[in-house]
Known about the structure:
One of its GO terms (biological process) is biotin biosynthetic process. Pathway: Cofactor biosynthesis; biotin biosynthesis; biotin from 7,8-diaminononanoate: step 2/2. It catalyses: (4R,5S)-dethiobiotin + (sulfur carrier)-SH + 2 reduced [2Fe-2S]-[ferredoxin] + 2 S-adenosyl-L-methionine = (sulfur carrier)-H + biotin + 2 5'-deoxyadenosine + 2 L-methionine + 2 oxidized [2Fe-2S]-[ferredoxin]. Catalyzes the conversion of dethiobiotin (DTB) to biotin by the insertion of a sulfur atom into dethiobiotin via a radical-based mechanism. It comes from Neorhodopirellula pilleata. By secondary structure, the protein is of the alpha/beta class. The protein has a single domain (39-336), classed as Alpha-Beta Barrel (TIM Barrel). It is built from 14 helices and ten strands. It has helices at 22-31, 38-46, 52-67, 109-121, 138-155, 168-177, 190-193, 202-214, 231-244, 270-283, 295-298, 303-306, 326-335, 352-355, and strands spanning 70-80, 126-131, 158-162, 181-183, 218-220, 223-225, 248-253, 288-291, 312-314, 339-341. Strands 1, 2, 3, 4, 5, 6, 7, 8, 9 and 10 form a ten-stranded parallel β-sheet that branches. Helix 9 (231-244) links the parallel strand 6 and strand 7. The longest helix has 18 residues, at 138-155.
Amino acid sequence: MSVASSPEPSVAADPRFSPPGYFDALATRVLDGSPITRAEALSILQASDLDVPAILAAGYRIRHHYFGNSVQLYFLMNAKSGLCPEDCHYCSQSKISEAPVPKYNILKRDELLDAARVASERGAKTYCLVISARGPNEREMNAVETIVPEIKQKYGLDICACLGLLTDEQAKRLKACGVDRVNHNLNSSESHYEKICTTHTYADRVQTLRNVRDAGMEMCSGGIIGMGESKADIVSMAFDLAELGVQSIPVNILNAIDGTPLEGTDAMSPQDALKALAMFRFVNPSRELRIAGGRELHLRMLQPMGLYVANSVFVGDYLTTKGQAPQADYDMINDLGFEVTGSCEEFSLDSPSVSR
């Protein structure tokens, strides 16, 4: 007696996952030159945590197309700390912060030059010179104009200056002295901005970026996610950056520092942070995307996954908070099979300045 073969069991779609191939199809469209819509960008942020591997795999296709497996390293120098008259609620250096941070005026030449040496030894492509201020005064402008040519001549580093709000004339002076790029983050969406700062506006920040662009420098601008904004706010910021033509996008994940108005803000999950990073890659496919402050705190053991969509990181500390030890970053990049690229082709892992 013959036994009838059993039919193949049917597998019902699991409603916890997005439709099979959905994110890959979005990546294919982006690579074909068709931007995704705001609704599609929002769908990435609203996706189930179970979709994270598929989202990252699709985002990696875009990242690899433009950047391969390269990783750019950035070094951040807090050249003037505290003493800021602005009331940015996330910032430990603002006038309303009670956080115990160092307070000092712009550092002297030798200190800025020594930090550039450390940046070079760590394999950084770009030295980021940052001051806390509404905007630079004449003494600070003169200090930057003096040190930038010396750093570039001695170490060959690209220079990114973050000096606050800039006039068109100040932007032209920075270009003339050799600054390659200016950082001025949008920080959030236009609609959310008044909830995190009242001493200047979103429009003020956009105007600074336009002044930078018109002066012939690259724009570095991103934001901070996890400040109580909606998912639609994060999407709006990503699209505003695309429309401005920003070349480099640092994405910070809020470190809710004690003593700031955002102290106690609920932490963003690693999965939500990864989805946001991927969304920025889909919306800004050919732009440098950097995992910035808060990656160690929020991504934790999932940090390597972020580099499947981002292509740069800061190596070392941030403005007033500690970063991961540089050697851990080098190991992470090597374990991924990625490679550091930039102005410095070789860097020393044995230097005392590297190991901190």
